[in-house]
């Protein structure tokens, strides 16, 4: 594929993703509304809607010339919500115990394409601590959990995922290019855990470990976040070992709650 073709393909994919989110938020949209919102010609908006309709991600409304979310989107969203509920139920006790043992805030996260979703947080008892990020989304390349999960994909899939990516800079330490990210992910894959050294927010250091799920690559990760002043090199290794133990316990609890899903691996 030529570079220009790859860029155009990535741009079309992002427009399609934006359009699905727009449909979910607005309820229903006309072609003209999509055209204006995306800044594209009506013919392009119509092609995008038609492509989504063919994949079941959009559908024509029975009320005039409008489009709504399709059956595949509804099914996928419902399945994702149920999956997150099951995962969280399996992780709550383990994360709370982890926060108590380490004295730092523990998070459960998922990676969705280029974003890390913070699903659940267990706070520690210290006055100076990292607050809950539950419900927050951050760029995957700038988070410990996101990098732990990206490292499972392999070099080629990461290259494709970040093709034409506009790298956001959150702090002076944020990774800013694909080659830098690939070097970091190679290190993560080698040692089994990832570090966010003030890359998403100044003054915060985090360690992340992926949760093993044989049927679902990059399913989820557990993360410990702490004030950077309290976490040195030796502390990072200690937290990584604690996270590895917690991730294994969550994986077992998750399997016990949903053995059919794990049997697909």
UniProtKB/TrEMBL annotation:
Q: Which residues form the HTH iclR-type domain?
A: 10-71
The UniProt keywords, alphabetically, are: DNA-binding, Transcription, Transcription regulation
Q: Which GO terms describe its molecular function?
A: DNA binding; DNA-binding transcription factor activity
Which Pfam families does the protein's record reference?
HTH_IclR, IclR_C
Q: Which GO terms describe its biological process?
A: negative regulation of DNA-templated transcription
Fetch the SUPFAM superfamilies from UniProt. GAF domain-like, Winged helix' DNA-binding domain
Superkingdom in the source lineage: Bacteria
Q: Where is the IclR-ED domain?
A: 72-256
Tell me the protein's name.
Transcriptional regulator, IclR family
Organism per entry? Mycobacteroides abscessus subsp. massiliense
């Amino acid at each position: 594929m030529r570079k220009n073709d790859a860029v155009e393909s990535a741009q079309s994919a992002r427009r399609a993703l934006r359009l699905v989110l727009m449909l979910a938020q607005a309820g229903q949209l006309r072609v003209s509304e999509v055209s204006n919102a995306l800044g594209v010609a009506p013919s392009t908006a119509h092609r995008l809607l038609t492509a989504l309709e063919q994949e079941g991600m959009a559908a024509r409304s029975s009320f005039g010339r409008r489009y709504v979310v399709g059956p595949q989107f509804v099914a996928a969203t419902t399945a994702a919500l149920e999956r997150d509920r099951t995962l969280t139920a399996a992780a709550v006790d383990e994360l709370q115990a982890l926060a108590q043992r380490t004295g730092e805030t523990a998070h459960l996260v998922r990676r969705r394409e280029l974003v890390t979703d913070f699903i659940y947080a267990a706070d520690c008892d210290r006055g100076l601590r990292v607050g809950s990020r539950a419900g927050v989304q951050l760029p995957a390349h700038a988070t410990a959990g996101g990098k732990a999960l990206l490292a499972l994909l392999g070099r080629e899939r990461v290259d494709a995922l970040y093709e034409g990516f506009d790298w956001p800079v959150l702090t002076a330490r944020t990774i800013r290019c694909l080659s830098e990210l690939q070097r970091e992910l190679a290190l993560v894959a080698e040692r089994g855990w990832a570090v966010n050294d003030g890359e998403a927010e100044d003054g915060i250091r985090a360690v992340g470990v992926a949760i093993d799920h044989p049927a679902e690559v990059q399913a989820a990760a557990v993360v410990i976040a702490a004030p950077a002043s309290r976490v040195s090199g030796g502390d990072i290794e200690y937290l990584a070992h604690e996270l590895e133990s917690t991730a294994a316990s969550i994986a077992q609890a998750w399997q016990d709650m949903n053995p059919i899903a794990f049997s697909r691996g």
